[in-house]
Amino acid sequence: MTLLAPWWLLLLVPVALLAIGYVVQQRRRSKYAVRFATLPMLARLVPRRPGWRRHLPASVLLLAFAALGIAAARPQVEMEVPRETATIVVTIDTSLSMRQTDVPPNRLEAASAAAQQFIERLPERFNVGVVTFSGTTAVLTQPTTDHQQAAATLRNLTLENRTAIGEGVFTSLRVVEAQSVLMPEGEDVPAHVVLLSDGRNTFGRQPSEAARAAARAGVPVSTIAYGAPPDRDSSYAMSADTESLAAIAEETGGTAYTAEDRAELSDVYQDIRSSIGYRTEPVEVTHYVAVMALLAGLVAAAFSLRWFVRLP
After folding, report:
1. Of 89, 223, 227, nearest to 154 (Cα)?
2. Shared domain check, 255 and 123
3. Is residue 92 part of a domain?
4. What is the pLDDT of residue 111?
5. Rounded CA gap, 163 and 95, in Å?
6. Residues 70 and 87 reside in one and the same domain
7. Is 275 within the bounds of a domain?
8. Is residue 272, in this structure, part of any structural domain at all?
9. Mind listing the pLDDT tens digit for each residue in 225-275?
Protein backbone atom coordinates (compact mmCIF):
# COMPACT_ATOMS: atom_id res chain seq x y z
CA MET A 1 0.00 0.00 0.00
CA THR A 2 1.23 3.50 -0.82
CA LEU A 3 -0.07 6.92 0.23
CA LEU A 4 -0.69 9.86 -2.07
CA ALA A 5 -0.67 12.38 0.82
CA PRO A 6 1.44 10.79 3.59
CA TRP A 7 1.71 14.00 5.63
CA TRP A 8 -1.94 13.58 6.62
CA LEU A 9 -0.81 10.64 8.75
CA LEU A 10 0.12 13.27 11.33
CA LEU A 11 -3.57 13.14 12.21
CA LEU A 12 -2.80 9.82 13.89
CA VAL A 13 -0.73 11.65 16.53
CA PRO A 14 -3.76 13.11 18.37
CA VAL A 15 -5.46 9.73 18.05
CA ALA A 16 -2.48 8.09 19.76
CA LEU A 17 -2.50 10.80 22.47
CA LEU A 18 -6.21 10.20 23.01
CA ALA A 19 -5.57 6.47 23.42
CA ILE A 20 -2.79 7.16 25.94
CA GLY A 21 -5.04 9.59 27.80
CA TYR A 22 -7.77 6.98 27.98
CA VAL A 23 -5.41 4.39 29.49
CA VAL A 24 -4.04 6.90 32.02
CA GLN A 25 -7.54 7.99 32.99
CA GLN A 26 -8.62 4.39 33.59
CA ARG A 27 -5.63 3.76 35.87
CA ARG A 28 -6.27 6.96 37.82
CA ARG A 29 -9.90 5.97 38.25
CA SER A 30 -8.91 2.62 39.74
CA LYS A 31 -6.40 4.19 42.16
CA TYR A 32 -8.97 6.80 43.25
CA ALA A 33 -11.55 4.11 43.93
CA VAL A 34 -9.12 2.05 46.05
CA ARG A 35 -8.02 5.08 48.10
CA PHE A 36 -11.40 6.62 48.96
CA ALA A 37 -14.02 3.91 48.70
CA THR A 38 -15.06 1.59 51.50
CA LEU A 39 -14.69 -2.10 50.77
CA PRO A 40 -18.44 -2.73 50.24
CA MET A 41 -18.56 0.10 47.70
CA LEU A 42 -15.37 -0.97 45.91
CA ALA A 43 -17.07 -3.81 44.04
CA ARG A 44 -19.56 -1.33 42.58
CA LEU A 45 -17.01 1.34 41.63
CA VAL A 46 -14.50 -1.06 40.09
CA PRO A 47 -16.53 -4.03 38.94
CA ARG A 48 -14.80 -7.07 37.58
CA ARG A 49 -17.58 -7.65 35.12
CA PRO A 50 -18.08 -6.67 32.43
CA GLY A 51 -14.67 -4.95 32.25
CA TRP A 52 -14.11 -5.67 28.56
CA ARG A 53 -17.50 -4.16 27.70
CA ARG A 54 -16.52 -0.89 29.31
CA HIS A 55 -13.45 -0.58 27.07
CA LEU A 56 -14.79 -2.00 23.81
CA PRO A 57 -16.78 1.06 22.56
CA ALA A 58 -13.84 3.37 23.25
CA SER A 59 -11.43 0.99 21.50
CA VAL A 60 -13.63 0.71 18.41
CA LEU A 61 -14.07 4.50 18.35
CA LEU A 62 -10.29 4.97 18.44
CA LEU A 63 -9.99 2.57 15.50
CA ALA A 64 -12.54 4.68 13.63
CA PHE A 65 -10.48 7.83 14.28
CA ALA A 66 -7.32 6.03 13.09
CA ALA A 67 -9.06 4.89 9.92
CA LEU A 68 -10.15 8.46 9.20
CA GLY A 69 -6.53 9.60 9.55
CA ILE A 70 -5.40 6.95 7.10
CA ALA A 71 -8.19 7.88 4.70
CA ALA A 72 -6.99 11.49 4.75
CA ALA A 73 -3.58 10.25 3.54
CA ARG A 74 -5.30 8.83 0.41
CA PRO A 75 -4.09 5.21 0.42
CA GLN A 76 -3.78 3.23 -2.79
CA VAL A 77 -3.10 -0.43 -3.43
CA GLU A 78 -2.01 -2.46 -6.46
CA MET A 79 -5.04 -4.14 -8.01
CA GLU A 80 -5.80 -6.07 -11.18
CA VAL A 81 -8.13 -4.18 -13.50
CA PRO A 82 -9.46 -5.36 -16.88
CA ARG A 83 -7.73 -4.03 -19.97
CA GLU A 84 -9.98 -2.00 -22.22
CA THR A 85 -8.28 -3.18 -25.40
CA ALA A 86 -5.22 -5.05 -26.65
CA THR A 87 -3.88 -6.77 -29.76
CA ILE A 88 -3.33 -10.52 -29.47
CA VAL A 89 -1.68 -12.58 -32.21
CA VAL A 90 -2.11 -16.36 -31.97
CA THR A 91 0.75 -18.04 -33.84
CA ILE A 92 0.52 -21.80 -34.45
CA ASP A 93 2.99 -24.32 -35.80
CA THR A 94 1.58 -26.15 -38.85
CA SER A 95 4.58 -28.33 -39.63
CA LEU A 96 4.09 -32.02 -40.46
CA SER A 97 4.93 -33.04 -36.90
CA MET A 98 1.56 -31.64 -35.80
CA ARG A 99 -0.16 -34.69 -37.37
CA GLN A 100 1.20 -36.91 -34.57
CA THR A 101 -1.57 -38.72 -32.67
CA ASP A 102 0.02 -38.76 -29.20
CA VAL A 103 -2.55 -36.04 -28.41
CA PRO A 104 -5.89 -37.34 -29.75
CA PRO A 105 -7.23 -37.03 -32.32
CA ASN A 106 -3.92 -35.43 -33.36
CA ARG A 107 -1.79 -32.51 -32.22
CA LEU A 108 -3.12 -30.07 -34.81
CA GLU A 109 -6.82 -30.64 -34.14
CA ALA A 110 -6.35 -30.53 -30.37
CA ALA A 111 -4.26 -27.35 -30.59
CA SER A 112 -6.73 -25.76 -33.00
CA ALA A 113 -9.71 -26.48 -30.72
CA ALA A 114 -7.93 -25.06 -27.67
CA ALA A 115 -6.83 -21.95 -29.59
CA GLN A 116 -10.37 -21.37 -30.87
CA GLN A 117 -11.73 -21.54 -27.33
CA PHE A 118 -9.01 -19.13 -26.19
CA ILE A 119 -9.87 -16.61 -28.90
CA GLU A 120 -13.61 -16.77 -28.35
CA ARG A 121 -13.24 -16.10 -24.62
CA LEU A 122 -11.01 -13.04 -24.91
CA PRO A 123 -12.56 -9.67 -23.95
CA GLU A 124 -14.81 -8.33 -26.71
CA ARG A 125 -12.71 -5.24 -27.45
CA PHE A 126 -9.49 -7.19 -27.92
CA ASN A 127 -8.19 -7.35 -31.49
CA VAL A 128 -7.16 -10.91 -32.39
CA GLY A 129 -5.00 -12.00 -35.31
CA VAL A 130 -3.98 -15.51 -36.42
CA VAL A 131 -0.64 -16.52 -37.94
CA THR A 132 0.57 -19.97 -38.94
CA PHE A 133 4.11 -21.11 -39.72
CA SER A 134 5.82 -24.17 -41.15
CA GLY A 135 8.44 -23.68 -43.87
CA THR A 136 6.52 -20.52 -44.74
CA THR A 137 4.29 -18.20 -42.76
CA ALA A 138 0.72 -17.09 -43.41
CA VAL A 139 -1.50 -14.42 -41.88
CA LEU A 140 -4.89 -16.07 -41.68
CA THR A 141 -6.58 -13.12 -39.97
CA GLN A 142 -5.52 -9.54 -39.44
CA PRO A 143 -6.32 -8.31 -35.91
CA THR A 144 -10.09 -7.99 -35.53
CA THR A 145 -12.67 -7.81 -32.78
CA ASP A 146 -14.70 -10.43 -34.65
CA HIS A 147 -13.45 -13.32 -32.56
CA GLN A 148 -15.68 -15.89 -34.23
CA GLN A 149 -14.20 -15.02 -37.61
CA ALA A 150 -10.67 -15.31 -36.23
CA ALA A 151 -11.42 -18.65 -34.58
CA ALA A 152 -13.00 -20.00 -37.77
CA THR A 153 -9.72 -19.65 -39.66
CA LEU A 154 -8.20 -22.31 -37.39
CA ARG A 155 -10.61 -25.06 -38.46
CA ASN A 156 -9.00 -25.97 -41.79
CA LEU A 157 -5.26 -25.72 -41.41
CA THR A 158 -2.82 -27.21 -43.91
CA LEU A 159 0.40 -28.94 -42.85
CA GLU A 160 3.71 -28.39 -44.65
CA ASN A 161 7.37 -29.34 -44.35
CA ARG A 162 9.88 -27.64 -42.07
CA THR A 163 9.46 -25.43 -39.01
CA ALA A 164 10.30 -21.71 -39.09
CA ILE A 165 9.72 -20.54 -35.51
CA GLY A 166 11.76 -17.38 -35.96
CA GLU A 167 9.85 -16.43 -39.10
CA GLY A 168 6.58 -17.03 -37.26
CA VAL A 169 7.61 -14.46 -34.64
CA PHE A 170 8.75 -11.95 -37.27
CA THR A 171 5.45 -12.27 -39.17
CA SER A 172 3.51 -11.79 -35.92
CA LEU A 173 5.48 -8.62 -35.21
CA ARG A 174 4.61 -7.26 -38.66
CA VAL A 175 0.94 -7.93 -37.92
CA VAL A 176 1.23 -6.04 -34.62
CA GLU A 177 3.03 -3.15 -36.32
CA ALA A 178 0.38 -2.88 -39.03
CA GLN A 179 -2.36 -2.85 -36.39
CA SER A 180 -0.64 -0.10 -34.37
CA VAL A 181 -0.58 2.12 -37.47
CA LEU A 182 -4.37 1.85 -37.67
CA MET A 183 -4.92 2.92 -34.07
CA PRO A 184 -5.84 6.55 -33.26
CA GLU A 185 -2.84 8.81 -32.76
CA GLY A 186 -1.59 8.81 -29.20
CA GLU A 187 -3.46 5.63 -28.23
CA ASP A 188 -1.02 3.08 -26.81
CA VAL A 189 -2.55 -0.37 -27.24
CA PRO A 190 -0.57 -3.25 -25.70
CA ALA A 191 0.20 -6.24 -27.88
CA HIS A 192 1.01 -9.86 -27.06
CA VAL A 193 2.02 -12.83 -29.20
CA VAL A 194 1.04 -16.37 -28.16
CA LEU A 195 3.18 -18.89 -30.05
CA LEU A 196 2.66 -22.67 -30.04
CA SER A 197 5.15 -25.14 -31.48
CA ASP A 198 5.81 -28.86 -31.14
CA GLY A 199 9.22 -28.89 -32.82
CA ARG A 200 12.44 -26.98 -33.27
CA ASN A 201 13.54 -24.37 -35.79
CA THR A 202 14.66 -25.98 -39.05
CA PHE A 203 14.35 -23.10 -41.49
CA GLY A 204 14.61 -19.33 -41.73
CA ARG A 205 15.94 -16.87 -39.19
CA GLN A 206 16.82 -18.10 -35.74
CA PRO A 207 14.38 -17.78 -32.81
CA SER A 208 17.02 -15.82 -30.86
CA GLU A 209 17.08 -13.16 -33.59
CA ALA A 210 13.29 -12.97 -33.55
CA ALA A 211 13.30 -12.68 -29.76
CA ARG A 212 15.63 -9.67 -29.91
CA ALA A 213 13.35 -8.02 -32.47
CA ALA A 214 10.29 -8.59 -30.29
CA ALA A 215 12.10 -7.23 -27.25
CA ARG A 216 13.05 -4.07 -29.16
CA ALA A 217 9.43 -3.67 -30.27
CA GLY A 218 8.20 -4.12 -26.70
CA VAL A 219 5.96 -7.07 -27.64
CA PRO A 220 5.95 -9.97 -25.17
CA VAL A 221 5.90 -13.44 -26.72
CA SER A 222 4.43 -16.22 -24.58
CA THR A 223 5.46 -19.64 -25.88
CA ILE A 224 3.84 -23.07 -25.57
CA ALA A 225 5.96 -26.17 -26.12
CA TYR A 226 3.33 -28.68 -27.17
CA GLY A 227 3.06 -32.46 -27.47
CA ALA A 228 3.97 -35.50 -25.40
CA PRO A 229 7.67 -36.51 -25.37
CA PRO A 230 8.39 -39.26 -27.95
CA ASP A 231 8.58 -42.86 -26.74
CA ARG A 232 11.87 -44.68 -27.00
CA ASP A 233 10.36 -47.11 -29.51
CA SER A 234 8.78 -44.37 -31.58
CA SER A 235 10.21 -43.57 -34.99
CA TYR A 236 9.31 -39.95 -34.41
CA ALA A 237 12.36 -38.40 -32.72
CA MET A 238 11.47 -34.70 -32.89
CA SER A 239 10.08 -32.95 -29.83
CA ALA A 240 9.51 -29.31 -28.91
CA ASP A 241 12.62 -27.23 -28.40
CA THR A 242 11.62 -26.11 -24.92
CA GLU A 243 14.89 -24.28 -24.30
CA SER A 244 14.64 -22.06 -27.38
CA LEU A 245 10.97 -21.37 -26.76
CA ALA A 246 11.65 -20.50 -23.13
CA ALA A 247 14.49 -18.19 -24.20
CA ILE A 248 12.10 -16.31 -26.51
CA ALA A 249 9.62 -15.82 -23.68
CA GLU A 250 12.27 -14.75 -21.19
CA GLU A 251 13.90 -12.18 -23.48
CA THR A 252 10.60 -10.62 -24.56
CA GLY A 253 8.91 -10.54 -21.15
CA GLY A 254 6.43 -13.29 -21.95
CA THR A 255 5.86 -16.60 -20.18
CA ALA A 256 7.04 -20.05 -21.27
CA TYR A 257 4.62 -22.98 -20.94
CA THR A 258 4.69 -26.68 -21.72
CA ALA A 259 1.64 -28.80 -22.50
CA GLU A 260 1.61 -32.53 -23.13
CA ASP A 261 -2.09 -33.02 -23.74
CA ARG A 262 -5.26 -31.16 -24.64
CA ALA A 263 -6.31 -30.57 -21.03
CA GLU A 264 -2.96 -28.99 -20.14
CA LEU A 265 -3.11 -26.84 -23.26
CA SER A 266 -6.54 -25.54 -22.25
CA ASP A 267 -5.16 -24.70 -18.79
CA VAL A 268 -2.24 -22.87 -20.40
CA TYR A 269 -4.56 -20.75 -22.53
CA GLN A 270 -6.67 -19.98 -19.46
CA ASP A 271 -3.57 -18.74 -17.65
CA ILE A 272 -2.49 -16.64 -20.62
CA ARG A 273 -5.96 -15.12 -20.93
CA SER A 274 -5.86 -14.13 -17.26
CA SER A 275 -2.42 -12.57 -17.57
CA ILE A 276 -3.08 -10.50 -20.70
CA GLY A 277 -6.70 -9.65 -19.96
CA TYR A 278 -5.81 -7.69 -16.84
CA ARG A 279 -3.17 -5.21 -15.84
CA THR A 280 -1.90 -4.28 -12.39
CA GLU A 281 -2.14 -0.62 -11.48
CA PRO A 282 -2.44 1.48 -8.33
CA VAL A 283 -6.05 2.15 -7.31
CA GLU A 284 -6.99 4.70 -4.64
CA VAL A 285 -9.06 3.14 -1.84
CA THR A 286 -9.76 6.24 0.23
CA HIS A 287 -13.52 5.77 0.04
CA TYR A 288 -13.25 2.18 1.29
CA VAL A 289 -11.21 3.22 4.32
CA ALA A 290 -13.63 6.09 5.04
CA VAL A 291 -16.58 3.69 4.93
CA MET A 292 -14.76 1.37 7.34
CA ALA A 293 -14.23 4.31 9.70
CA LEU A 294 -17.92 5.23 9.54
CA LEU A 295 -18.98 1.65 10.22
CA ALA A 296 -16.55 1.39 13.15
CA GLY A 297 -17.96 4.60 14.65
CA LEU A 298 -21.51 3.29 14.30
CA VAL A 299 -20.54 0.00 15.95
CA ALA A 300 -18.94 1.86 18.85
CA ALA A 301 -22.08 3.95 19.31
CA ALA A 302 -24.32 0.87 19.15
CA PHE A 303 -22.29 -0.99 21.80
CA SER A 304 -22.27 2.01 24.10
CA LEU A 305 -26.02 2.58 23.80
CA ARG A 306 -26.77 -1.10 24.27
CA TRP A 307 -24.64 -1.59 27.37
CA PHE A 308 -24.43 1.85 29.02
CA VAL A 309 -27.41 3.78 27.54
CA ARG A 310 -25.12 6.59 26.37
CA LEU A 311 -22.84 7.47 23.49
CA PRO A 312 -19.08 6.89 24.00
Report:
1. 89
2. yes
3. yes
4. 94
5. 6
6. no
7. no
8. no
9. 998 665 544 444 457 889 999 999 999 999 999 998 889 999 999 999 888
* Same-domain check for residues 126 and 235: yes
Nearest Cα residue to 201 out of 163, 153, 159, 258: 163
What's the domain range around 41? 2-78+283-308
- Asked, for residue 225, whether it belongs to a domain, the answer is yes
Say if residues 79 and 283 touch (Cβ distance below 8 Å): yes
What percent of the chain clears pLDDT 70, i.e. is strictly above it? 84
C-alpha distance from residue 103 to each of 4, 97, 107, 197, 205 (Å): 53, 12, 5, 14, 29
DSSP one-letter code for 12:
H
pLDDT digits (tens, 9 = 90+) for 135-188: 999 999 999 999 999 999 999 899 999 999 999 999 999 999 988 765 555 456
Say what the pTM is. 0.68
Do 209 and 128 share a structural domain? yes
Nearest to 71 by CA among 288, 273, 236, 232: 288
Sheet holding 2-3, edge to edge: 2-3, 75-82, 278-284
d(CA 89, CA 192): 6
